[in-house]
Amino acid sequence: MKDNAASFIAKSTIRAADLEHRRKINFNIAKYNAVVPVGKQQFGNQVMLAREKAKNRKWDAIEHLDRYLEEFERKITARGAKVIWAENAAEALEEIGKICKEKRCKTLVKSKSMVTEEIHLNKYLESIGIESVETDLGEYIQQLDGEAPYHIVTPAMHKSKEDVARLFADKLGTPSGLSPEELTLVARKILRDKYVEAEVGVTGANFIVADVGGIAVTENEGNARLSCGWPKTHIVVVGIEKMIPSIQDLALFWPLLATYGTGQRITVYNTLVSGPRQPDETDGPEEMYVILLDNGRTNLLANPTSREALYCIRCGACLNACPVYKNIGGHSYETTYSGPIGKVITPYLSGMNEYKHLSYASSLCGNCTEVCPVRINIHELLLDNRHEAVIQGSSTIAERLAWKVWKTASLNRGMMNMGTGKMKNWVVNKVFKGWTTHRSDLDFSQKTFNEMWRDKHG
After folding, report:
1. Architecture of domain 46-295
2. In this structure, what are the phi and psi dihedrals at residue 218, rounded to the nearest 5 degrees?
3. What pTM value is reported for the model?
């Protein structure tokens, strides 16, 4: 079995020393940091109030998720859509495969969707002989390069315009040194032909809207609209946590997502899809399927503390704020969801024992919590994950023993006063080597504060 922790440490060590990678990431994140304050201006001095209200609305959605999901199903099926409940990735892929086989699908267009990355949809479609084409420019770049998305919002954040020009020249035979505008036009021409060819279009959803039975999609390129509106069959794959109670909530969530995701007041295209083409409509797919995916989300829901992570609207703000992410990059995590929020949710989605190490890859500085638009206490949830790993027995005997000794000593003043600083240095730096593997040696005082106080005051 693959040692995920060892692989993470190896990849992050290499990436952290890559100065060119750091330059590109710092350049792109600096541009993000410059525009977010501009986007926030639309809230005036009520940014915190908007964030608090959004958190309360997501609290309502998650605490009453069963009721809202059933309401959504009733409303959207009344307009002709078909709702499929998938407990895991295998069930979701099987259902998509059945639909594609029934439609005799050879080409499928797909807009940007992290949940389809989560279930490895492209790999599955390739295995059954279906061409799956990413239509978001960033995702298309990553697909050409054979890489997974690097960032939740900006899939190719780690690539410079020169990198993309070289990639297009290598894979598509374009002239070298094309400008970003020229590269975009090349991709646009190729993708427009794919929309026409495709029998099936796949999208994710930024929000599921309960009271109108619709899925809300926000984007900047229009590719999601073409993916869901042009092919005869539209498949939506969405995690059950994307629920919001009412269409009225979009007036809050769309601007928040835009501001914290890209620094915009609102994204270019915001669409609410509530079913396939109706008899009196001229545009849209003939059939629409909505796959509601669990895939470990109910594991989070079952935990009264960690379920707060289900409030996430996937804006990516915590990644851009995280000092660890900015040094090791998105691919080092080897998970679909990277950065602080990925470290919180991945152990629940994919296994605590396999991914508990992610919760330790944090400075616990709290910057992720500070920037979260729905005020998720991310750094506290990372600590809770560490606690949960121990509760579930995912810690080693040596680790449990070390902490037991530390706890016993910390609660016993006599033991804390035992030995000289030199002896304590030897125990911590030589016997318990975990601390000093990547840090300087600890240097204890020759006397404890308790002893110094006693010497001074008697």
Report:
1. 3-Layer(aba) Sandwich (3.40)
2. -120, 135
3. 0.91
